[in-house]
Design a protein that fits this description.
Elements (H helix, E strand, L loop, with lengths): L2 H7 L6 E13 L15 E5 L3 E5 L4 E5 L3 H11 L3 E17 L6 E2 L5 E3 L4 H41 L6 H22 L7 H4 L4 H10 L2 H54 L3
Parallel strand pairs: 5-7
Antiparallel strand pairs: 1-4, 1-5, 2-3, 3-4, 6-7
Helix pairs in contact: 3-4, 3-7, 4-7
Length: about 270
């Protein structure tokens, strides 16, 4: 793990830490960082700045502990080449960490995260929670924006009995919902416990408390329900649009048949 690095960082001597979770892009390519100075793996944890620690995740999140604002800017600049599909404005979540061996681990009444020791495994678990939370925050906003787009269509269906969107727009809505679901479930695995707990089962209670405080399961469930509703609404409107088009085609065919019959009658009785 690099005891010399840990000694230099003096992590165990700290009584308070600041944490900032940044969702920088769609993915982080961590392969090149795995050959640098590493404090721990799975999730990848490296030193940064003068005394900071960063926990990195392939799904695009970086959780920074005790970096100054200038160090944070410099660190993000250094890993920019590793960010795939960077976001114009990274999603951000902050947390204050208090180190106190005499208090119960978890989140206190002031909102601070209390830990018994400032150890790398605990910071990794904190990073896991904050990383998942910042991902959920981004996609909660994205789903809310989709709701704003789908609501007028549902109202039009209720009031007029027909939709007002094109098939392309509806397919885009369905595609966006499926993409969010794929990212939160497939890549981030919000509801899955980190592998670290298999090695450190004594920290499972600590992780469970944080998971409960940040409502990761509840937020994922709410997100899934909203995504399902968006997909179902868009699919209903798309089916209705297809039905309307089919009826229109049938009317065209009927009119053509009538025209052909009239033309035949004209030729028979008028032109002899």
């Amino acid at each position: 793990m690099g005891d010399d690095i840990l000694t230099a960082l003096r992590i165990g001597q700290r009584r308070a830490l600041g944490g900032r979770a940044l969702l920088l892009g769609d993915r982080l390519d961590l392969r090149s960082l795995e050959t640098t100075r590493v404090l721990a793996r799975s999730p990848l944890t490296i030193p940064a700045g003068e005394r900071g620690v960063v926990v990195l995740f392939r799904y695009g999140a970086a959780v920074l502990f005790d970096l100054t604002p200038l160090e944070e800017v410099e660190f993000v600049r250094q890993i920019e080449p590793l960010i795939r599909d960077p976001f114009g404005e990274p999603e951000l979540e902050q947390a204050a960490v208090a180190v106190d061996p005499d208090r119960e681990e978890g989140i206190d009444e002031s909102g601070k995260i209390v830990v018994h020791e400032a150890t790398i495994p605990r910071l990794q678990l904190l990073g896991d929670i904050l990383g998942k939370s910042v991902v959920l925050a981004r996609y909660e906003k994205a789903v809310a924006a989709q709701f704003d787009q789908i609501e007028p269509l549902a109202k039009a269906l209720q009031e007029k009995g027909s939709g007002v969107a094109t098939g392309k727009n509806l397919l885009q809505q369905i595609g966006a919902a499926l993409l969010i679901e794929q990212k939160t479930v497939g890549r981030v695995e919000v509801t899955e416990k980190p592998e670290l707990l298999w090695e450190r089962p004594e920290l499972e209670r600590f992780y469970a408390r944080l998971e409960d405080e940040y409502e990761l399961h509840e937020r994922q469930l709410a997100l899934d329900r909203k995504l399902a509703l968006i997909s179902r609404t868009a699919q209903t409107l798309l089916d209705l649009l297809h039905t309307q088009r089919s009826l229109r085609v049938e009317w065209y065919i009927t009119l053509l048949i009538i025209f052909e019959v009239l033309l035949t009658l004209y030729e028979m009785f008028v032109r002899g």
